[in-house]
């Protein structure tokens, strides 16, 4: 079985956020981590590898610096890594990103593609399902459990206060939740091996069936008008009232803000 | 000359730091208070290969290098010096001499489970009357048929009762020179925990590293197969000294970690603690103290990493190891003492963990060769 996991290097929310003048993130200037949902997706793939045997390839699109996140994935146990990087691909929104990644995935063999549900920097949850559309694959989103049954996957899909059990024939794309599992740590030996391995680097020219009108900032229907750091909330308001006055006060406040 | 770390060592550090923060730090107070050996942490460390970092892959290790190993001990010791010394004693004092002097059969039988973390290791040299004067050891091993019979006791053994495999130094011969003077000849042995005649004595109640299992080992007609002799007969003293050279790098890393941990906590504290209407970090005394502490910690780190690199590339590294341990241990003691002072009354309470770091730091000036021994080694190399 061949599994491809799409991962993304995202800003570490513990560090500061730096913007470019065009409103996009200055990814080169921030502390970074592997996106948590993607890491859970990678862990799911590695568990399938442990259980059933599989070849796991990680793919990321980003700056050359995104090589780090691929090495981390290799150090956790992935077998191969692919970096899609090219200046013309920069500034991509979800549409252009999914077009680009799909263009790279057409070069790879896969039975199963796993992406994170969403990235903590954009929070759109669109790229995974869009890739499945471009590749004409079934998609199962919000996976909280993944099993293999012959040539099919059986997935528990989170759905509010319950879950659906879905079965789909491979190839299929699954989007993973960070609640799916507790990702393993890297190992020291895995890290040393990861830096001895080759990372396959793909550029614009390597992408299959992707039109120039669908890549980079120019190929992105979504344009960022303005971006800013989160405005800190004030200190809040403190009142000292009895129990029933407190209830009235809270109800009054909720009505005031049209919550009830 | 490049003082920056390469990416794989940076990544290794981030791994050790994340593990230490998530898995080790939350238990540090309890481990100290209860003096309970952190077995669950050891099992987790085994799972992720932390117990075989510098051991070759063919023997179940990680195939990384001594620098990655010292970074592991350093990061663990930043949050819990007990956990740091468990890894250090296991790796440097047990796995390392077997890797260095073991036969292929011994490596297969003992090094592989040690490196995989399936078994824990310890090293036994010190005796009640043989500390710095290791030649005073009286535990003996006498060949009887196909076995050596060990009698005697060892004290202050780290990982004492928790280990499974022990490297034990014992006297196998007494030579008399032309002038009639006696000289003890030592050999090294690999002894398994459940060997009949091998038992445990007193558990030491210690000032620091209280979760570390420090025991007396007692050998009473303990029969060890002769194929368990480690290295050539009569070379035990040299093996012990060479093993301690490596061990000192591990303890130097432990000391470094303790100092770094105390400094980090102190920096955070002086930013928050307010006196006379401002944070105490705004006072020049605090600033100068921190500057001195940080400079010494960084210098200690350079010496420790240099010693680790020397172990990776040189045949002997006694001087580098002794300098690293001497300096890092004294820095750990000084920095933790100053950290307590800067924390004031809170620093003296157990809640703030700084007092534990000060108690933990002291042992680094004492074990695996006191600071005085390190000075003997260094001056010996200078004046030879």
Question: What attributes does this structure have?
Answer:
heterodimer; A: 260 residues; alpha/beta; nine-stranded mixed sheet; two-stranded antiparallel sheet; 11 strands; 26% helix; 24% strand; B: 384 residues; alpha+beta; 11 helices; 53% helix; 17% strand; globular
Could you please describe the fold and organization of this structure?
- The complex is a heterodimer of chains A (260) and B (384).
- Chain A has helices at 36-52, 67-76, 94-105, 127-134, 188-194, 243-256, and strands at residues 2-6, 9-11, 32-34, 55-61, 80-84, 112-116, 139-149, 152-159, 162-169, 172-176, 200-202.
- With 260 residues, chain A is of the alpha/beta class.
- The termini of chain A are far apart.
- The relative contact order of chain A is 0.18.
- The mean pLDDT of chain A is 91.
- By secondary structure, chain B is of the alpha+beta class.
- Chain B has helices spanning 7-24, 28-34, 39-47, 66-79, 81-101, 104-116, 236-272, 284-313, 318-347, 354-364, 371-383, and strands at 121-124, 140-144, 147-157, 165-176, 182-192, 198-203, 215-225, 229-230, 274-275, 278-279.
- The longest helix of chain B is centred in the middle third of the chain and has 37 residues, at 236-272.
- The model of chain B has no long low-confidence stretch (mean pLDDT 97).
- The chains are: A alpha/beta (260), B alpha+beta (384).
- The interface between A and B is medium-sized, with 16 and 20 residues.
């Amino acid at each position: 079985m061949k599994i491809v996991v799409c991962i993304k290097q995202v800003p570490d929310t513990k560090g500061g956020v730096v913007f470019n003048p065009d409103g996009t993130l200055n990814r080169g200037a921030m502390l970074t981590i592997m996106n948590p949902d993607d890491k859970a997706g990678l862990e799911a793939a590695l568990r399938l590898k442990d259980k059933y045997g599989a070849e796991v390839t990680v793919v990321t699109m980003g700056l050359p610096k995104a090589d780090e996140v691929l090495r981390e994935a290799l150090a956790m146990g992935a077998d191969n890594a692919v970096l899609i990087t090219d200046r013309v691909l920069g500034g991509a929104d979800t549409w252009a990103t999914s077009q680009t990644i799909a263009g790279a995935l057409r070069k790879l063999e896969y039975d199963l593609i796993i992406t994170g549900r969403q990235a903590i920097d954009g929070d759109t949850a669109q790229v995974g399902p869009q890739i499945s559309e471009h590749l004409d694959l079934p998609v199962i989103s919000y996976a909280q459990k993944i099993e293999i049954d012959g040539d099919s996957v059986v997935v528990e899909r989170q759905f509010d206060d319950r879950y659906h059990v879905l079965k789909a024939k491979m190839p299929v794309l699954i989007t993973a939740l960070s609640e799916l599992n507790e990702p393993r740590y890297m190992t020291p030996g895995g890290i040393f091996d990861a830096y001895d391995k080759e990372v396959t680097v793909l550029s614009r020219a390597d992408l299959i069936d992707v039109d120039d009108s669908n890549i980079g900032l120019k190929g992105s229907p979504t344009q960022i008008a303005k971006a800013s750091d989160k405005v800190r909330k004030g200190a809040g308001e403190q009142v000292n009232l009895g129990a029933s006055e407190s209830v009235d006060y809270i109800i009054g406040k909720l009505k005031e803000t049209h919550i009830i | 000359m490049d003082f920056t770390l390469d990416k794989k060592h940076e990544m290794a550090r981030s791994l050790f730091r994340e593990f230490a923060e998530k898995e080790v730090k939350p238990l540090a107070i309890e481990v100290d208070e209860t003096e309970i050996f952190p077995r669950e942490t050891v099992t987790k460390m085994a799972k992720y290969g932390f117990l075989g970092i510098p051991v070759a892959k063919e023997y179940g290790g990680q195939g990384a290098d001594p620098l990655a190993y010292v970074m592991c001990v350093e990061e663990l010791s930043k949050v819990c010096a007990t956990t740091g010394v468990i890894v250090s004693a296991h790796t440097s004092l047990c796995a390392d001499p077997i890797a260095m002097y073991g036969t292929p059969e011994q490596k297969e039988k003992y090094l592989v489970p040690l490196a995989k973390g399936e078994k824990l290791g310890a090293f036994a040299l010190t005796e009640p009357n043989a500390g710095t004067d290791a030649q005073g050891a009286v535990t003996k091993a006498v060949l009887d048929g196909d076995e050596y019979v060990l009698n005697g006791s060892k004290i202050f053994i780290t990982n004492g009762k928790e280990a499974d495999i022990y490297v034990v130094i014992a006297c196998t011969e007494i030579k008399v020179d032309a002038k009639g003077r006696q000289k003890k000849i030592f050999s090294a042995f690999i002894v398994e925990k459940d060997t009949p005649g091998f038992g445990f004595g007193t558990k030491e109640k210690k000032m620091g590293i209280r979760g570390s299992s420090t025991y007396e080992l007692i050998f009473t007609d303990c029969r060890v197969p002769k194929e368990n002799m480690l290295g050539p007969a009569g070379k035990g003293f040299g093996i012990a000294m060479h093993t301690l050279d490596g061990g000192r790098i591990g303890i130097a890393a432990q000391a470094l970690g303790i100092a770094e941990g105390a400094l980090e906590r102190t920096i955070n504290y002086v930013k928050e603690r307010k006196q006379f209407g401002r944070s105490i970090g705004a006072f020049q005394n605090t600033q100068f103290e921190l500057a001195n502490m940080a400079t010494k910690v960084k210098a200690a780190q350079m010496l420790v990493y240099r010693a680790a690199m020397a172990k990776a590339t040189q045949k002997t590294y006694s001087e580098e190891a002794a300098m690293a341990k001497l300096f890092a241990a004294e820095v750990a003691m000084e920095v933790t003492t100053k950290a307590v002072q800067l924390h004031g009354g809170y620093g003296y309470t157990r809640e703030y963990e700084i007092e534990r770091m000060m108690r933990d730091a002291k042992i680094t000036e004492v074990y695996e060769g006191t600071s005085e021994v390190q000075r003997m080694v260094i001056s010996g190399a200078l004046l030879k």
